């Protein structure tokens, strides 16, 4: 069981009050192990990527960022040992995550292993998630401090429902919070909260991710009024929605009194095979982890956000959410 008030990081447990300014939805490296092994990406160089990440975290430190949550879970090429090499050289704390990233189906292994399936046994997803939190990831000793689940355009498929159910079990056993990936146009954050509630997860332990992709205030207020935290976490993804629109939505929600129900981040990466550096440079030049402090925070201040609002969204809310509930 995770100790109350302590958040697990790559460098060990940290009191939640010491996390400081936190980017709660980011990625260090996103890959695909099978593709990476058989068809290496021409822009990937591991040694250079590690140096890029270390330098990027150094710049974040100078901007005042003290903690970054790495939401690279199974399905996104998670390599905790590689990220640990970055964390060992950084003043910025990194928080590891567990969960499974699939928008539709799980790999065949999961269709034969588990209760009532061909091979049988307990659900390996639950064992993986709980083990990552309580013991450590892949023999590194690094314990996960966040759970992540996904729904996208296909909605809650049977395998997605299984992942969510397993995450709920892991949450109940460990108290570690749950963050989600959603498809904002489908407004399927609603479905996530309903299913998680059916499995005993309180909405105030859930961050509904990618809410910043939506400008529908009725939808966003519905989620927040249910107790969930809104992940306004894709600043810089202007190929999805411009930052000016994202800022307007945050400012309106602040005006309506939702400062305690929002967190800010980018969903950026130092390297992603899905959207590699050359593509990002050409099509999403502001999609990086410095965007908040270099561009967005000044825009929020200019629009009327107070220093207390910013402290709430970047410090107090992440600390509250990351504190295990048992």
From TrEMBL:
Keywords (A to Z) from UniProt: Hydrolase, Metal-binding
Pfam families: PTE
InterPro entries: AryldialkylPase_Zn-BS, Metal_Hydrolase, Phosphotriesterase
List of residues binding Zn(2+) 2: 148, 181, 210
Hydrolase listed as a keyword: yes
Binding site for Zn(2+) 1: 25, 27, 148, 267
Listed GO MF terms: hydrolase activity, acting on ester bonds; zinc ion binding
Family annotation (PROSITE patterns): PHOSPHOTRIESTERASE_1, PHOSPHOTRIESTERASE_2
Cofactor(s) of this protein: a divalent metal cation
UniProt xrefs under Gene3D superfamilies: Metal-dependent hydrolases
Keyword Ligase tagged: no
Entries under SUPFAM superfamilies matching the protein: Metallo-dependent hydrolases
Free-text cofactor note: Binds 2 divalent metal cations per subunit.
Residues with N6-carboxylysine modification: 148
Similarity field: Belongs to the metallo-dependent hydrolases superfamily. Phosphotriesterase family.
Protein name, per record: Phosphotriesterase
């Amino acid at each position: 069981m995770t100790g109350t008030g302590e958040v697990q990081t790559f460098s060990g447990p940290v009191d939640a009050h010491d996390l400081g300014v936190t980017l709660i939805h980011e990625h260090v490296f996103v890959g695909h192990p099978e593709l990476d092994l058989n068809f290496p990406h021409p822009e990937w160089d591991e040694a250079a990527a590690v140096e890029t990440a270390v330098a990027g975290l150094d710049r974040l430190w100078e901007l005042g960022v003290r903690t970054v949550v790495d939401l690279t879970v199974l399905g996104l090429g998670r390599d905790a040992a590689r990220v640990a090499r970055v964390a060992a050289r950084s003043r910025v704390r990194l928080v590891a995550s567990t969960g499974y990233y699939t928008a539709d189906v799980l790999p065949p292994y999961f269709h034969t292993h588990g209760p009532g399936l061909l091979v049988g046994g307990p659900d390996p997803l639950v064992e993986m998630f709980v083990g990552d939190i309580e013991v450590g990831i892949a023999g590194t000793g690094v314990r996960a401090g966040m759970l992540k689940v996904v729904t996208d355009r296909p909605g809650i498929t049977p395998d997605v429902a299984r992942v969510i159910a397993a995450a709920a079990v892991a949450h109940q056993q460990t108290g570690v919070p749950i963050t989600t990936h959603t498809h904002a146009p489908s407004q399927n954050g609603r479905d996530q909260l309903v299913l998680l509630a059916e499995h005993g997860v309180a909405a105030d332990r859930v961050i509904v991710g990618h809410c910043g992709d939506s400008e529908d205030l009725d939808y966003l207020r519905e989620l927040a009024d249910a107790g969930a935290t809104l992940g306004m976490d894709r600043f810089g993804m202007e190929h999805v929605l411009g930052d000016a629109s994202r800022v307007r939505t945050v400012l309106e929600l602040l005006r309506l009194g939702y400062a305690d129900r929002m967190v800010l981040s980018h969903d950026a990466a130092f390297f992603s095979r899905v959207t590699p550096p050359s593509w990002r440079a050409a099509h999403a030049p502001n999609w990086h982890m410095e965007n908040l402090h270099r561009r967005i925070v000044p825009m929020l201040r200019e629009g009327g956000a107070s220093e207390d609002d910013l402290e709430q969204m970047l410090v107090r809310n992440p600390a509250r959410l990351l504190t295990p509930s048992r």
